[in-house]
Amino acid sequence: MKKILNFINGEYIESVQGLFLDNYEPATGIVYSQIADSDSADIEVAVQAASVAFTLWSKTSPEERCAIMLRIADGIERRLEEFALAETIDQGKPLWLSKVMDIPRAVQNFRFFATEIVHFSTSAHTDSGSLNYTKRSPIGVVGCISPWNLPLYLFTWKIAPALAAGNCVIAKPSELTPITASMLGEVCREAGLPSGVLNIVHGLGNKVGAALVEHPAVKAISFTGGTSTGAAIAQSAAPKFKKLSLELGGKNPNIVFADCNFEEAVVQSARAAFTNQGEICLCGSRIFIESSIYESFKKRFLEEVSKFTVGDPLDTKTKQGAIVAKVHFDKVMSYIELAKEEGGSILCGGKPFVPEGRCEKGWFIEPTVIEGLSYDCRTNQEEIFGPVVTLTPFDTEEEVLMMANSTKYGLASVVWTENVRKAHRVAEQLQAGIVWINCWLVRDLRTPFGGVKDSGVGREGGVEALRFFTEAKNVCIKY
Ligand code: NAD
């Protein structure tokens, strides 16, 4: 069986203890590989390698780092088909989605930050008699911890700015989806990234992830994952005064006003609900519809949802693949049961899907639409992170803003209206780090990305990411 090893100091090696964890293919429910089950001893080895590498990497010019990172982007792109297949087998998402979204975005992440670093500038301030200039230097050894929903996409979204800024990285992908992260090591080696600059350590979050956060030589942690994990990481890192970037959970509202472009709102709301099995932190899982169009929207929305055919992720006709793990499958199903207990009516889905043949033991759930729930019940307040959405009518702007803002989360929100004044007014009042108007998941990598409230602390993307991964020093000269 394939063994996925740690990538430390440019070499693939077993964990110090020599232990392994099983890795499942979600579409079949079968163990298809094993991953290194690392702990603090492996973090120690990685820290040693990264600390040595930092001496030289931090002194390379932005142009040198740019050239290597562009070669990494090219290397992933050359192997796009191979990466996409690996991602789909490991994660359960449709193969076509890995090909058009996940892997191209990983390529784009490297290209974006490779070129951004050569344009990154600092500031200078003058007044009568003094000059201040601010120097930005790499931090040192940093930790990047990523989740399972967009494996290589989010892994590289953190690693690329960290490397571009001159840091050495110890990265931990999710134990549920380690394969493409492991393949990245080969590409980095071929692209000429010096040994020890990027180290990839596999294993459980509360074991090797926690050890990475705790290590005193790791000066910053960039984390994407669940809100409760983020809280545990903050608790461990704060007394050591580490820099922290936390991208956490969401329960995003999708607000449909009667004056929207109806057809576009229907089609895109279905996409925002069920893309990647609803396993995207940005998915619009609470759909609020103005009462006057509630029934007509519901009818057309259900027609659209019926096109989300569930099945083998390798089948080109499949629009929704498998749920990443049995434990997550059980969690999503328990929320569907909860919704029923809370008085919700299941308009479609609501049950597991059992494909014939190769995937009969996989973890699939039909796209599920629920109505008749109060905005403040648990189903509408807690993150489900699966193919489950609720429909809720509203009468006024004030009412929908109150319901939209009622959760502890504040990551993204979506608004559908053709009225430009209303669009700006509502965007202003939504408690979210990201507001999409008449679109969803349109991303410009230069923009700040992140959430408010329990959805996180700090922003990723563009110059924000380079600021996070550098330390500022102000120099003041009196003349
Ligand atoms: P998770 O918090 O369980 O795990 C995320 C990563 O953290 C994994 O690599 C895991 O091994 C590691 N980890 C777990 N416990 C740890 C600990 N104590 N110390 C250090 N590392 C630890 O999250 P998940 O289930 O993999 O991902 C789903 C969650 O991620 C959802 O809540 C989703 O909303 C969120 N998410 C947020 C964003 C965003 O940009 N805000 C993007 C994607 C996913």
How would you describe this structure to a colleague?
This protein folds into two domains: 2-248 and 455-478, Aldehyde Dehydrogenase, Chain A, domain 1 (3-Layer(aba) Sandwich); 253-444, Aldehyde Dehydrogenase, Chain A, domain 2 (3-Layer(aba) Sandwich), CATH 3.40.309.10. It is 39% helix and 23% strand. It has 15 helices and 23 strands. A seven-stranded mixed beta sheet has the order 15-16-17-14-13-19-20, with helices on both faces. The longest helix is centred in the first third of the chain and has 25 residues, at 95-119. The N and C termini lie far apart (69 Å). The chain binds nicotinamide-adenine-dinucleotide.
The CATH fourth-level homologous superfamily of the largest domain: Aldehyde Dehydrogenase, Chain A, domain 1
Distinct ligands, ions and cofactors found in the model: nicotinamide-adenine-dinucleotide
Characterize the overall form.
globular
Q: What oligomerization state is this entry in?
A: single chain
Task: List unreliable stretches of 5+ residues.
Answer: none
Structural class: alpha/beta
Mean pLDDT: 98
Percentage of residues assigned to helices: 25-40%
Could you tell me how far the N terminus lies from the C terminus, measured between alpha carbons in angstroms? 69 Å
Kindly state the number of beta strands: 23
